[in-house]
Amino acid sequence: MRDLLRVAAVQQNIIWEKSEANRDALEQILAAQKGNADIVILPEMFTTGFSMSPKSLAEPEEGETLKWMKQVATSGSFALCGSIIVESNARYYNRFYFVEPSGRVSWYDKRHLFRMGDEHNHYAPGNERKIISYLGWRIMPQICYDLRFPVFSRNRNDYDLLIYVANFPASRRGVWNTLLPARAIENQCYVVAVNRVGTDGVGLDYSGDSAIYNPRGNAMVRAAENKEVVVMAEVSLSELNSFRERFPVWLDADDFTIKL
């Protein structure tokens, strides 16, 4: 078990629909995290941008990007995560991969598809609420539009760290910056939020606003606006558990089930 976890958020300027170019651009950024981070987090669809062209861009389940992630995680001695476009059983998914230095891979398929961007007509929704165990931490992965659905991410005393990877446009940055601390407060957990910067292939601008929040909803660190940058914070499991014991909101939580 690891009490202190060093978490790095990579606020990336994604090159539109160029998987190899994005991997190449990330090489130096990720190499610099060796020895500094335990988990490195990339944005949603970090190899392509938020594209509705899965037929031409999707990778197989054991595709080049997953192989690359395994190599980077092993050589960097950190877990590497982020989402990419994957084809599985003749369906396309916006899939979050969590790759450990050992080569172990966990994944989560985006549950809530952004219909205003036509995502629901190009991708299949995930059917599992996923919790990943790593170094004694319980981690819940979420992708972009998932942020608007608090019931799905409601903490049942089953996770400690909530990760959001996104392509959240600058036009809705107020929503992003409001809901993220709310998720930390209501779930009494750390939240790491990783968004992209730049302009995508359909003309949408992204300001980034990547940040790491503590369980009180306070930002431990914020990324510079409109800048490709890596931000990092050290989160503490003992401090989290102590806070939960002193202020045990979870004991009064409502019992419920989610139908997927």
Describe the model.
This protein has 260 residues and is of the alpha/beta class. It has a single domain, classed as Nitrilase/N-carbamoyl-D-aminoacid amidohydrolase. Helix content is 21%, strand content 29%. It has 5 helices and 14 strands. It has helices at 19-31, 54-57, 64-76, 173-187, 237-246; strands at residues 4-11, 39-41, 79-88, 91-99, 105-109, 132-134, 137-143, 161-165, 190-194, 197-199, 205-207, 211-213, 219-222, 229-236. The strands form 3 sheets. A 6-stranded mixed sheet has the order 5-4-3-2-1-14. The protein has a 6-stranded mixed sheet with strand order 6-7-8-9-12-13, with helices on one face. It has a two-stranded antiparallel sheet with strand order 10-11. A hairpin with a 2-residue loop joins strand 3 and strand 4 (91-99). Helix 1 (19-31) runs parallel beside helix 3 (64-76). The longest helix is centred in the last third of the chain and has 15 residues, at 173-187. The relative contact order is 0.17.
Summarize the structure.
The protein is an alpha/beta fold. 21% of the residues lie in helices and 29% in strands. It is globular.
N to C succession of SSEs: EHEHHEEEEEEHEEEEEEH
Helix percentage range: 10-25%
CATH topology: Nitrilase/N-carbamoyl-D-aminoacid amidohydrolase
| Strand line-up of the largest beta sheet | 5-4-3-2-1-14
Largest sheet entry: 6 strands, mixed
Strand content: 25-35%
Mean pLDDT: 98
Structural class: alpha/beta
Looking at the overall shape, the CATH architecture is 4-Layer Sandwich
End-to-end separation: 32 Å
Number of domains: 1
Return the CATH class: Alpha Beta
Number of H- or I-type helical stretches: 5
Kindly state the number of beta strands: 14
Bulk shape: globular
Overall radius of gyration: 17 Å
Unreliable spans are: none
CATH superfamily: Carbon-nitrogen hydrolase
